[in-house]
Amino acid sequence: MTIQEAAERSGLSAHTLRYYERIGLIHSVRRDGSGHRDYVERDLEWLDFLTKLRTTGMPIAEMCRYAELRRMGDHTAAERRAMLEAHRDRVRCRIAELQQDLKVLDYKIDIYRGME
């Protein structure tokens, strides 16, 4: 599929896809006979995972390290797992913080409701 089709399906812009390729987050995408990028389903699955990492707050540099380890092969699985476990712990902490913030918002909303 073309970069435009991959962008549409992934929810990322073509500019972002090119940037991700340039910094090594995605491998050099296969090219068709005309030299245009030719994305496949496996590329979209990887982009979906990268999007989840980014949405949950993983820094780009850490994502690049993870991608580099992935390209190095199965012998890096333990390090990749450790990276994901550490990131999961940070996400859980952030969720707990957000839950506390939500309680404060609910409290304030209840005060305003009581004033009506």
From TrEMBL:
Q: Where is the HTH merR-type domain?
A: 1-69
What SUPFAM superfamilies does the entry give? Putative DNA-binding domain
Keyword Metal-binding, does the record have it?
no
Domain of life the protein comes from: Bacteria
User: Which Pfam families does the record match to this protein?
Assistant: MerR_1
GO molecular function term, any single one: DNA-binding transcription factor activity
**Mind listing the UniProt keywords for this protein, alphabetically?**
DNA-binding
**Gene3D superfamilies named in the record:** 1.10.1660.10
Answer whether the UniProt record assigns the keyword DNA-binding to this protein. Answer: yes
* Protein name per the record: DNA-binding transcriptional regulator, MerR family
Q: In which organism is this protein found? A: Nonomuraea pusilla
